[in-house]
Amino acid sequence: MFEIKLASENAIIIYFGEQASPELAKKIAFYSEFLHERLGELIIDIVPSYTSALISYDLNNCDHQKFCNLVSTSLAQAIFVNEEQSTEVIDIPVYYAEEVGLDLARMLTEKELSLAEFINIHSQQVYLVYAIGFSPAFAFLAEVDERIQMPRLTTPRIQIPAGSVGIADNQTAVYPIESAGGWNIVGRTPIDLSLNDYSNLQRFRVGHQVKFKSIDRQEFLALGGSL
């Protein structure tokens, strides 16, 4: 089941469900790719999210009603099968330490965990990409283990270094560029996820799987990390 609503003069939003889940994320990724293959000549962009997909299209080649009809027909023809697939897991190296983890000491105290315990909990999980947003290549990953979940900061920071790894409630993410933000920062990756490399726009897609790998200070610096 799906519901199509007007988002703007040349965009629609398709709702595929009400509650975010791994199955729904896979479904949205499947249908987004399917629509791109079927209607790519009309589509400008597709932005999948937790329960929906925002699609902008070329009004010069298709009016609103015709585009909605094409989308409805295409979705009705698509057959989604929720099967376990051998999806490649994207590994992200992370240096977990107080000198880069701005909130790490506080979180360890509040959660009554040692650094080793925290690293093990955060890095053993395989996370699913639920949405891309906030900034290019900013992937919202879930679900964070309850033992290390932490609400967003009451007052966001004005500046968070690029590569910072943060936690907000049941989500975790990497800041691809230096920016403001209110997530709890627990470490930093030396990998450049910014648009200095345009391939980063395709590095994370909804439905992809991501896992963090703990590295030490020496490895972090050797891989190009900066303190």
Note the beta-strand portion: 25-35%
What is the mean predicted local confidence, pLDDT? Answer: 91
Global morphology: elongated
How many whole angstroms does the radius of gyration measure?
Answer: 19 Å
**SSE arrangement, N to C:** EEHEEHEHHEEEEEEEEH
Helix content, binned percent: 10-25%
Structural class, please? alpha+beta
Stretches where pLDDT is under 50 for at least 5 consecutive residues are none
Q: What is the strand tally?
A: 13
Strand order of the largest sheet: 5-13-6-7-10-9-12
Q: What is the name of the CATH topology of the largest domain?
A: Cyclophilin
Structure write-up:
This protein has 227 residues and is of the alpha+beta class. 25% of the residues lie in helices and 30% in strands. The chain folds into 2 domains: 3-77, Gyrase A, domain 2 (2-Layer Sandwich); 89-223, Cyclophilin. It has 5 helices and 13 strands. A 7-stranded mixed beta sheet has the order 5-13-6-7-10-9-12. A 4-stranded antiparallel beta sheet has the order 1-2-4-3, covered by helices on one side. The protein has a two-stranded antiparallel ribbon with strand order 8-11. The longest helix has 18 residues, at 22-39. The radius of gyration is 19 Å and the shape is elongated. The chain starts with a strand and ends in a 5-residue tail after the last helix. The relative contact order is 0.16. The model has no long low-confidence stretch (mean pLDDT 91).
